[in-house]
User: Fold this.
Amino acid sequence: MRYSEGADLDPSGVRDRRRGGGMRGGRGVAVGGGGLGLVGVLVLVLFQVLGGGGDGGTGAALGQLSGLAQGETADNGQLEQQCRTGADANESVDCAVVADIESIQDYWAGVLGADYRPTQTVFFNGSVQTACGGATSGSGPFYCPADQLVYIDLSFFDTLQQQFGAQGGLFVNAYVIAHEYAHHVQNLLGINQQVTPGATGPLSGTVRLELQADCFAGAWANHAETVPDESGQPLIAEITQDDVDRALDAAARIGDDFIQANLGSGTVDQDAFSHGTSEQRQRWFLTGYETGDPAQCDTFATDDLG
Assistant:
C-alpha cells in the first residue's frame, strides 16, 4: 500500500490523548460481545478486535462520561508537525492512519451525502475514558456509540502480528480503521437497532453487525485509490493484491473459531460467536471489496452468512 506522496494530510480527524491520563471512574468496557472463556487480555481483544459495534448502539447505557476526563488532555501538535503529506504517511504508521481516516470519511461522505457526520479517532496509550466507560489497550480498537468516537491504541497493530500471527502491514491497519468507521456508519443509519445487546451465536445480530462492518470496509477499499480529498486528488496511490491477501490473512486470524481453537480452550463453541468465523469474515470483506457496493453488504437480509 502506498500513499500519494504530494497529498496533503489533515490530522483533525484524530484526537491524540497519548500524553493524557488514564481510566477515571468508568463503568465497563465500551462495547463488546460474548466471552469465550479466554483469560486476561485475550478476552477483551476477542470482545472488540475489529469490532466495537456489538452493543447494538446501546453504549450510553454503560456510562455517560463523555469527552476528556478531568485532567486529561488531547494534543495534536506532534501529528500536525509530522503528518503533513502522503510522503509522511509512507514513512510513519501514525501518519498512515491519519491518511486512512481521511480517505475513509471522504468515501462515506460521498456515499451518504448529508447523512454522514464525520467523527474522530482517539489515539491512546494504556487506558482511556470514553462515554461508554473505561477501556484499556487490551480492549482492542473499538467504536463507542455514546460519543460516536473510534478508539485505538496503535500498539494493537503489533499485537495482531505477535499474538495472532497476522502478517500485518499498512493495508491491514487501514482495514482495522475502516471496520471501526463502518460501525459509525451503522450507528448513523440506525442499523444497530436491529441488534439485541449481548446476543451471541452464529446467526445473531451481533455477528451480522460485525460481518457487515467487514463488508463496508471492503467497499471502501475498492474505491480507496480514487476517493478524492478536498484537493480533488486521492490520498491512496496503490493497493496491491499482496495487501488484499494480508487483509484476508488478518480476517482469518480474528474469526471466532480461530481464536477459540488457537488462543482459547481449543474447543469451538458456536453459541459464543460474536464476530463470525474466519471464513465468514474473509467472505464479507471480499464481497465489499469485489463489488465496491455497500448495498451488497446487507447481512441482516440473509441466513447464508457463509
